[in-house]
Every structure is written in structure tokens, then in C-alpha cells.
Design a protein that fits this description.
The complex is a heterodimer of chains A (596) and B (127). Chain A is of the alpha/beta class. Chain A is built from 23 helices and 18 strands. Chain A is globular and about 85 Å long. Chain A starts with a strand and ends with a strand. Chain B is elongated and about 55 Å long. Classes of the chains: A alpha/beta (596), B alpha+beta (127).
């Protein structure tokens, strides 16, 4: 059947939670009702990236972008656009602060500055149909390595491309493969690390949800290069949609003989198995992950020996992250020279970031290495909402650090981020504005890491709790002289004394905020003030006598009845009763409630 | 499903190529059928259905068929605009099934404008 139009409905996790399955169902129903079901095909795709605007439908070939759809919109949309050919303006995207809508994907700033390698199939294929993947050059790289390349050629190509691990460490992928290939021990294993654990990060989940075959094909290529016949995808059980799409993809690849024995009749054997993890942060660390697959307690082990020499069940094992694997087929197909022409001197290709926090265009973006933070935050991200001031961006999750606003023109690559005390990490970008308290933000990350520490090393286990205790004390208004210096000293000690990446990086959010926002820590400790008005112990609400008209709304809404005053008279907040919930400030129409 | 060899895989790719190209918006020819209420009343649906059929039969995977609203010249509906890559769009009016087949064969497949059915060259633009 030939369809004239394809409706690409985003069914990534974010859009699904906004009701996109319902939208898809209604579209199919309405299209059938209008008798258009033999001309218009409705396709469910993986995450299209612009999560803030979900549910999303893109109309192809016209490239028209519909967003924030609700079930009530669908009958009108189908009749107007698909029956009568009149695209519906009011369902199109309008950038914040502007009045004119933008009809097509290509014209939207969020999309047109991106450069897609790992996410090249996003929004263009149905992740549950292997044929869709094949139609977009899928498994072409597999054909190439089985017919025209030796394992050495593959490794050379990957090395030449300059691809580095996208999971956080940034280790050169080709070198990792070569070490594993050199080992004479058999069997060898390869693993895909899909245990994405950073709060606010969902790059890997989206890649698996939108293009699972790219990961499978990447692993097939890696397996051929190092000589492995068995692979595992270690994925957290909190990713049900990703797991189900991956299961379907593996099943389809087996049916086509792209996994299993004698693949494509070329005498190459390889099969894949999914291992679900329970979502412990430490399992993202490769030796812990291996222990988890082996069925023992996921504590990290001393390296060396590295997994490439002695990994899963003591055998040579190569682990790469989801995004790294998804890059591999494109490098093989388009060549190392093409890949290495993108990016900076030491960081090649692109990186996927999840752009979250105080940003207009929340979503998933893939950008060339070397792009500036300004381009990511303003051109793609659309800036900070509600006219607030941009304060910085936390990159690399609980292991990373904050890059302050003064460094907004920093080119983003592995080296530059490390230089300024942050790190690439897996690619979480949390944007913070003037209303974010940096001490509170550090406390949040420390709470996370001290909770997730496996407890093996004293430095990490006890050190994180001690840091958390001091940070909590500071935010509660009991900070003392010497706390900052103590946090710094302890932070560096934890980095030095911990065995795995979790402990070695957990002080980073604290150290980087002390470095860049020391005055905020000092304000909390010395002046007992929270400049961002976040820490409740350090703020008071007052009613401005000049502005209060005595409307009584705040007194009525106050949950603890801490506000008194007669109608048409100035109201007063009883500080001993006030719980600092901020409701009075929100409900006051006269802007009379102030925070100090 | 038996296991595939390389040739089988290439066959599948060929089969699904059209869908992939359509989603990428890659085309050498774009046919727009004007589907306002007037167009539909005058028989634009027949034109659309015929086009979908003949495009498929032609085996061409680089031809896009799409719709737009009323072209504003209701008395001459059904109408269609044909735009070959890099060339000026041509509007055809008073279409019938037979006319659109002829236009497709001569203009889309062979690049020769069917002058007897053509209403105008070019598309109206915002000033």
C-alpha cells in the first residue's frame, strides 16, 4: 500500500506520559472515519527530543510540526489538514515570547542547530519495525564489515575516527577494543551499559526507545572486531518501554538471522541477552555492572585488571555505553574521516545532552562537540523561562560540576569541561537560574550520592554522609566558620581515597559550586541569608504596608492561619507561626508579600 | 521467516525505501491536490485516489503527493499543482481522472508541461 502522508507520532516515554498513545489511537480512528486510512499512515516513533512540547506529531513529507496536542484537537486536525489540506496554525509551535507560529521542523531553532548521528533515526522510524531501520541504511554497516573489512580494519577505523566513550569517562573506544581483541582468552563478552543513573538524564533511554537496532548493529560490529559471540545489554528495570522495544528488536533481528549463528551466511555468530538491573547508581560503574550480571553484590573491584583483560566471569569483556554503540554503525558506513571532521581536536563527533531544569525548551539534543554553551542554552534551549537570569548549568549529574554564567561561551568538549571543574559525564545538563540556591543544589546531589554509595570504601560511605551533614546544617542556618574549608578538604580526600568513579567524583558538585559561588556559601554561613530565597530557615516573609490593600486573600489562604488583619487594613505575618510555604506570595495580587 | 542473506536484506531495503524517502521529505516531484470544500465537491478525491494509484504503479519512489487548501479559483476545481525539482510550479485546472493520468505521464514522468490543461505558471506568494 502506498501512503501519501505519514504521521510520525512521538511515543517516547515523555510524550507517552502526556498521553501520546491516546493521540495515536484517536488519529487512527478519525482517519478511518474520514476514509483516509488507505492514504495516511500513523506511525509511532521513539523520542523526537522536544519533550517540553509533547504530545508531538510530525506530518511527513511536509515536515509540519504539531505540538501540545490534546485528544479534543484530533477530529478538527484530521478534517482540516488531512482531508482538506489546510495545516492548522494554532497547533503549531510558537517560540516563547514570540507571536508567530513556526510550521515546519526545519525552521524551529530547537531542531535546526542539532546534528544527528546517534539520534539520526529519531522520529523517522517505528522502533518496533526492523524494516523501517533497514530502509534507513540499517544493517548496511554490518554487511560492510562482513564482506569488506577484517577485525583489524574495524578497530583501525574506530581508532581513526576518534570516538570516545559517551558514558562519562571519555576513554578512546578503539583502544578499548584493541586491548580486548589482543587477549587470547575465549570466550569473550561484550556489554552495552544502559544503566543510565544520573538524575535528569535520559539520553540512553531515548536511543534505545527510538532506535534499538542501531545499538544492536553497533554491538554486532564490536563483537566481530574483538571476537566475541555473546553480548549483554544491562538496562535498568525502571525503563519498561525501552526494555520492551529492545526485546522486540532482538526478536526481529533473530528472525532475520541478524543475531544467532552464521549471520548473513558469513560464518559469524553472535547473540544478545538483556539483563535487567534494579536501578542502583553504582551499577553504572563497569566492574559493579559485571558483578551484577554475575548475580553477586554490585560492589566495584580494583582495576587493573581492567574488564578488557578480566571481566565477566573472569573473561575478556568490552563494555561501552548505549550512545557509543549507536555511533559505531555510522562511523563504519560513512568512514572515520567523515566522523573526525566533526568536533574539536580531541573530542570528535557529536554528543547527546538532556537539557532540563530552568530552560524553555526541555528536551533531548544532539550537538557537535565544540558547540558553545550559549548556542545550546539560547539558540536550541530557547533561554531561561519567565525572564529570569541565567546563573549556570550543572553538567554531568552527581559526578559533574556547575559551569557558571560567566563561562557561557565555553566550547563544550571533554577537555574544556574538565578544565573548568565540570565534566562531560553521560550528558545531563541541568540549567539553573537566579532562583536556584547553589548550596541547596549541592546538598541535593550529595543526598543522592550518599544514598547510592555501595558502602565498600569508608571514604565514600562515611565521607559522603559527613559532607551531607555539613551541607544540611548550612542550609538550615547553622553553618559555622570553617565549614567551607572542611568541605573542600574532605572533598579532595574522598576523591583520592575512593576506589570507583562514584566516590572519586561525588564531591564535584560541592567543590565546583564552592569555586564558582563561594559567596553564596558565605552568605548562608556568615550573614545567615539565602540569596536565592530557597533555604526556608534563612528567609522571612513580610507584608509591605504600602502595597497591602487588606483584601484578606492571604489570610484566607494561609494554611496555618499565621496572617492576621481586618478587611481594608494592612495585614501582618506572625513569624513564629509562619511555615514559609510561600502561598501568600503566590496569591497576593498586589505584589505586597516580600521575601528577605 | 528464513534467515536472510545479504541479497535478501538489500531486497527489503529496496521495498521500504519509498517510505524512508517520504519521511525525509526527499523528492524530485511534488504534486499538490487542492482539497478545499469546493475542490472536494468538484471531485478532488478522485484525483487524489487516482494519483496515489498511478504513482505507485509507476514505481517512482521520489514523487510526493500532498494536499493543500482551496486554491482560490473555485470555479476551476479540481486543481493540482505540479512542482518538479528546480522548476517553476505549474497549476492545472478542471481536472478529471483522464487528464491527471495524462499530466502525470507527460509532465511528471517526462518533464513536458501539458499546456492545454495548464492554468498558470508559478505560485502566488506573500508580498
Amino acid at each position: 500500500m502506498a501512503y501519501r502522508t505519514h504521521l510520525m507520532v512521538c511515543t517516547g516515554t515523555a510524550c507517552v506520559s502526556c498521553g501520546s498513545f491516546k493521540i495515536k489511537e484517536l488519529l487512527e480512528e478519525e482517519i478511518k472515519k474520514q476514509g483516509l486510512d488507505d492514504e495516511i499512515l500513523v506511525v509511532g516513533t521513539g523520542c523526537q527530543g522536544f519533550c517540553a512540547q509533547g504530545p508531538i506529531v510530525v506530518v511527513q513529507p511536509d515536515d509540519i510540526f504539531y505540538q501540545l496536542l490534546s485528544p479534543e484537537d484530533i477530529p478538527y486536525l484530521v478534517e482540516e489538514h488531512f482531508l482538506k489540506g489546510r495545516p492548522v496554525k494554532k497547533m503549531m509551535y510558537t517560540p516563547p515570547g514570540e507571536k508567530t507560529h513556526i510550521p515546519t521542523v526545519n525552521e524551529i531553532g530547537f531542531f535546526n542547530k542539532q546534528r544527528l548521528i546517534a539520534l539520526r533515526n529519531k522520529g523517522l522510524i517505528d522502533a518496533e519495525k526492523i524494516d523501517d531501520y533497514i530502509g534507513r541504511d540499517g544493517y548496511n554497516a554490518l554487511i560492510k564489515i562482513l564482506t569488506a573489512m577484517t577485525p583489524e580494519d574495524i578497530i583501525n577505523e574506530i581508532q581513526k575516527s576518534g570516538l570516545r566513550g559517551r558514558g562519562g569517562g571519555g576513554f578512546p573506544t578503539g583502544i578499548k577494543w584493541e586491548i580486548c581483541k589482543k587477549s587470547e582468552e575465549f570466550p569473550k563478552y561484550i556489554i552495552c551499559n544502559a544503566d543510565e543513573g544520573d538524575p535528569g538524564a535520559y539520553m540512553d533511554r531515548s536511543i534505545v526507545e527510538s532506535d534499538p537496532h542501531a545499538v544492536i548493529e553497533g554491538m554486532l560490529i564490536g563483537a566481530r572486531a574483538i571476537g566475541a559471540e555473546q553480548g549483554y545489554v544491562y538496562i535498568r528495570t525502571e525503563y519498561p518501554l525501552a526494555i520492551s522495544r529492545l526485546e522486540i528488536a532482538i526478536e526481529q533481528a533473530r528472525e532475520y538471522g541478524l543475531l544467532g549463528e552464521d549471520i548473513l551466511g558469513k560464518g559469524f555468530n553472535f547473540d544478545l541477552e538483556i539483563k535487567q538491573g534494579a536501578g542502583a547508581f553504582v551499577c553504572g560503574e563497569e566492574t559493579s555492572l559485571i558483578h551484577s550480571i554475575e548475580g553477586i553484590s554490585p560492589e566495584p573491584s580494583q582495576r587493573p585488571p581492567f574488564p578488557a583483560e578480566s571481566g565477566l566471569w573472569g573473561q575478556p569483556t568490552n563494555i561501552n555505553n548505549v550512545e557509543t554503540w549507536a555511533n559505531v554503525p555510522r562511523i563504519i558506513l560513512r568512514g572515520a574521516d567523515w566522523f573526525s571532521s566533526i568536533g574539536t581536536e580531541k573530542s570528535k563527533g557529536t554528543k547527546v545532552f538532556s537539557l532540563v531544569g530552568k530552560i524553555n525548551n526541555t528536551g533531548l539534543v544532539e550537538v557537535p562537540m565544540g558547540i558553545t554553551l550559549r548556542e545550546i542554552i539560547y539558540d536550541i534551549g530557547g533561554g531561561v523561562p519567565n525572564g529570569k537570569k541565567f546563573k549556570g548549568v550543572q553538567i554531568g549529574g552527581p559526578s559533574g560540576g556547575v559551569v557558571p554564567a560567566s563561562l557561557i561561551d565555553l566550547p563544550v568538549d571533554y577537555e574544556k569541561l574538565t578544565e573548568v571543574g565540570s565534566m562531560m559525564g553521560s550528558g545531563g545538563m541541568v540549567v539553573v537560574d537566579e532562583d536556584t540556591c547553589m548550596v541547596d543544589l549541592s546538598r541535593y546531589f550529595l543526598e543522592f550520592t550518599s544514598d547510592e554509595s555501595c558502602g565498600k570504601c569508608t571514604s565514600c560511605r562515611e565521607g559522603s554522609s559527613a559532607m551531607l551533614e555539613v551541607l544540611t546544617r548550612i542550609t538550615e542556618g547553622h553553618g559555622k566558620e570553617g565549614d567551607i574549608e572542611f568541605l573542600e578538604e574532605l572533598g579532595y580526600a574522598i576523591k583520592d581515597a575512593s576506589q570507583c568513579g562514584l566516590g572519586q567524583t561525588l564531591p564535584n558538585p560541592v567543590l565546583s559550586t564552592i569555586k564558582n559561588f563561594r559567596h553564596e556559601y558565605e552568605a548562608h554561613i556568615k550573614d545567615k541569608k539565602c540569596p536565592a530565597h530557597v533555604c526556608k530557615a534563612l528567609i522571612d516573609f513580610h507584608i509591605d504596608a504600602d502595597k497591602c490593600v487588606g483584601c484578606t486573600v492571604c489570610a484566607i489562604k494561609c494554611p496555618v492561619k499565621a496572617i492576621s488583619g481586618n478587611r481594608k487594613e494592612v495585614h501582618i505575618i506572625d513569624q513564629s507561626e509562619c511555615i514559609k510555604c510561600g502561598i501568600c506570595k503566590t496569591v497576593c495580587k498586589f505584589d505586597a508579600v516580600t521575601v528577605e | 521467516m528464513p534467515k536472510l542473506n545479504i541479497q535478501d536484506l538489500e531486497e527489503i531495503r529496496k521495498k521500504v525505501r519509498k517510505a524512508a524517502l517520504l519521511r525525509e521529505g526527499i523528492s524530485n516531484a511534488k504534486i499538490t491536490v487542492h482539497m478545499g470544500t469546493c475542490g472536494i465537491a468538484a471531485g478532488a478525491r478522485t484525483i487524489m485516489n487516482t494519483l496515489i494509484k498511478i504513482v505507485e504503479e509507476s514505481g517512482r519512489d521520489d514523487v510526493i503527493v500532498t494536499t493543500s487548501g482551496c486554491a482560490g479559483f473555485c470555479s476551476r476545481e479540481p486543481m493540482a499543482t505540479i512542482e518538479l525539482k528546480g522548476e517553476t510550479p505549474v497549476k492545472y485546472s478542471d481536472l478529471t481522472k483522464e487528464k491527471i493520468i495524462k499530466i502525470f505521464e507527460e509532465h511528471v514522468l517526462n518533464g513536458k508541461i501539458v499546456e492545454e490543461y495548464a492554468l498558470a505558471l508559478g505560485s502566488e506568494r506573500e508580498p
